[in-house]
Write a structure and sequence with these properties.
Layout (H helix, E strand, L loop, with lengths): L2 E5 L3 H12 L3 E6 L22 E4 L5 H12 L2 H8 L1 E2 L4 E4 L1 H14 L3 E5 L10 E3 L7 H11 L3 E8 L2 E3 L9 E2 L10 E6 L1 H13 L20 H7 L25 E7 L6 E4 L8 H11 L8 E3 L2 E8 L1 H4 L12 E3 L9 H20 L11 H10 L26 E2 L3 H20 L21 E2 L39
Parallel strand pairs: 1-2, 1-7, 2-6, 7-16
Antiparallel strand pairs: 3-5, 4-5, 8-15, 9-13, 9-14, 10-11, 11-12, 12-13, 17-18
Helix pairs in contact: 1-10, 2-10, 6-7
Amino acid sequence: MDKVIVIGGGLAGSEASLLLAGAGVRVVLVEQKPVRRSPAHKSDGFAELVCSNSLRSDNPENAIGLLHEELRRLGSAVLEEADRARVPAGDALAVDRVAFSEALTRRIAEHPEIEVRKEEATALPEETCIVATGPLTGEGLARSLAEAVGESALAFYDAIAPIVAGDSVDQSVAFRRSRYGKGGDDYLNLPLSREEYERFVDELVAGQKVEPHAFEEPRYFEGCLPIEVMAARGRDVLAFGPMKPVGLVDPRTGRRPHAVVQLRREDRAGTAWNLVGFQTRLTWPEQKRIFAECIPGLRAATFIRLGQVHRNTFLDAPRALGPDGSLRARPHVFCAGQITGVEGYVESAASGHVAARRVLARLRGERFAPPPGTTALGALLRHVTGEAHPAGYDYQPTNVIFALFPPLEERHRKHERKARLLARARRDFADWGRAQGIPLAPEPPSRPARAPSPPTGTVAGGSDIGRSAPDATPSPPIPTLVERSDIAPPAAPGEAPR
């Protein structure tokens, strides 16, 4: 009987394990918890969401929403359980993180084809395997990977945002509204005047930070920068970033505030709220002081979780991985998830899904053709292979964004672009499924059309790489390929999480 070892029980490993087991393959899932935990993990369950509880925009006219749709149509276990654990979050897919993890943990534990081994993997196996250990890969396995790929294993840093108790937020200050009215009153908003905002920026810049160890070189992912790093880049960066007030009117004044802090619920009951985009490396005492003193509505806040920084490891995938997603130096080792340089919960699950299908095809002696680059899955693979990037590109993690898709060939107006990309993706995705003999769930019904933005001209096909992300409203120059759907309309709120 065929056997595949999957190392890592996060989103990529859970998705891969359940897909392979569902196809009759014997799976040995190796997970280091509870024997050993990374600094970011708290529970013993699989598919733990260590940062935000948002899987970002569910609108298929955003690249991440299209990725949701494609995974649903493929029967993704992660998306199935996310839908079941969904909590109100406007146009975004946010989940009750405990219910979500418990459901996937239960499915894995009860599956007759999956054997769970609770131990730390310290070296690459000699058998067919999928390494899905994520950005917090243990030292022993990271060393084994480095020996296989040379200097392609790189370290960078990401940050976690604080969570406050809902009943500790001053409701006389906060108002409920989603940007542009999308999703009704799912979000709490804390408005700041110009004077309050500028004081907050000054405190962030001056506040005490956690210093990295001597062996650590901070290399932040541009889509999830610590808030104080953004503040240090310019006085108005936050007001055009996670504290952007566009689409919001303070009902007490009838005017748009100078800046706003958005809070997104962490659970269905609204007992806990995440400070959207407020990942930070401030010391914990400084977080409590600055946020309570400078953010209206948080003076009496109870912090359920404070922000922190943790180390991350990822491969230089275009150099380290072959066309089928296996290590060039160890073809029996497939890699999936954030260790390949994809960023985000759903992107990790998607990577695990594709890796499992590739392994399954190899076991059966079949050829697996990946989804075309015009689809969300294929565009993500274009990033991992380097196809989406110019020569000499310094490989960095990214979410799925329309900048990774091949440009439209036909001429079109700017406001038509997303609808045309969606139509092309759906058409090509259906053709790919038929060609591969993969059954797909029906295409979802179209959403009500929104009034288009005023035409600004006609554009022809051309690469988006190197421009501002077209899915976001322009903001001060922070170089990034990320689709910041938590801060930039028309995408729904939802940060680019771990």
